[in-house]
Fold DUF1848 domain-containing protein.
Amino acid sequence: MILNTGNRTDIPAFYSQWFMNRIHEGYVLSRNPYNEDLVIRYRLSPDVVDLIQFCTKNPTPILPYIDELKRDYRMYFMVTITPYGQEIEPHVPNKNRIIDATKSLSRKLGKENVIWRYDPIFINEKYTLEYHIHIFEKMCKKLRGYVDACIFSYIDLYKKTIKNFPEVRKVTREEKEVLAQGFSAIATRYNIKLRTCLENDAFLNKYNIDTSGCATKDKLEEATKLHFHIPKTDMMARAGCQCLLGNDIGAYNTCFHECRYCYANYDNKLVEKNLKRHDPTSPLLIGHVKPTDIIRDAKQISYIDKQTTIFDF
C-alpha cells in the first residue's frame, strides 16, 4: 500500500514527532473526516507500506528522522515552494530555508524522490505574470540538480478558498498560456521536468508540459524503480485525477500555515483549537480514541510485484 500524509494537513511541518512515535509503535489511527465515530487503523510495517508520500511546505522538522526512516521505508516528497509573502502564507518559513531543506532531502533520498510544487498560482496586482515568471526562474536556478520535476497548477475556487480569500479570482485562459510558455522555457533551461496538477487544457501539450498527473502509478514506479500491482478498488483519486491519494492519515483543519488559498482548512479558530488537542503520544493526530469510536483495520497489502521491476519492461 501507499501511505499518504499530505492531502489534509502538513505532517512534516507540524507533527513530525507524532509521526515518528507512530512509526515506532507500528500503527496509526485515522479518523474518517465524514464520520467522526469511524476510525481506521493502519499497520505501519514495511512489509505492507511500500511507499510513504509526504506533501509539505516545510520539510525541515522531519529532516533529522530521514536517515532512520529510509532504513525501512521508501519515501516520496512533494515540497511546495511558492513566491507568496506572509499576507498570503502567514506561518510558512522563509523560502530560502525551505529551498535549503529541499536540497538536504534530495541529498538523502535522490532527486527523483523529491518533487517541487509551485502551486496554486493566482494573479493580482502584486503577484503579476511577470513576477511569477521572474521568481520561477530564480527558484529553478537554486533547485537545479536537486529536484526531478516541478508541478504547477492554477488556483481552484473551492468554497473554503473563497471564504478565506474572497478577493481572489480565476486565472484567465490568456494568463494561463503566458505562464505555461514562460515556465516551460525556463524549466527546460534548468533541466527540470514540468508537470501540471489537474490542468488538462489542450494548449499545455504544445509547451512540452506533462499533464498526466503528479503522483500517478507510473510516476511512483519511475521514482522507486519498482513495479506496482494496484487493485482497482485502491485507485482512489479525485474526478479527472489519476494520482494515488487514498490511505491518508491526516486531518482537516489542522495545518497551522493558514494559507489563505487553503482547501483543507475552513476555520482558523478551529485550527488553533485542534492544535491544542494534539497529543504526540496519541495514535490519532488530534485528540484521543472515544468510547463511541468504531475502529476498523484497513485492508492492507503490498503493491510491489516481486517478480518484476521497471527495468524488466
Q: What stands out?
A: The chain has one domain: 2-312. Strands lie at 2-4, 27-31, 38-43, 51-56, 75-80, 114-121, 149-154, 193-196, 294-297. Residues 173-189 form the longest helix (17 residues). DSSP finds nine helices and nine strands in the chain.
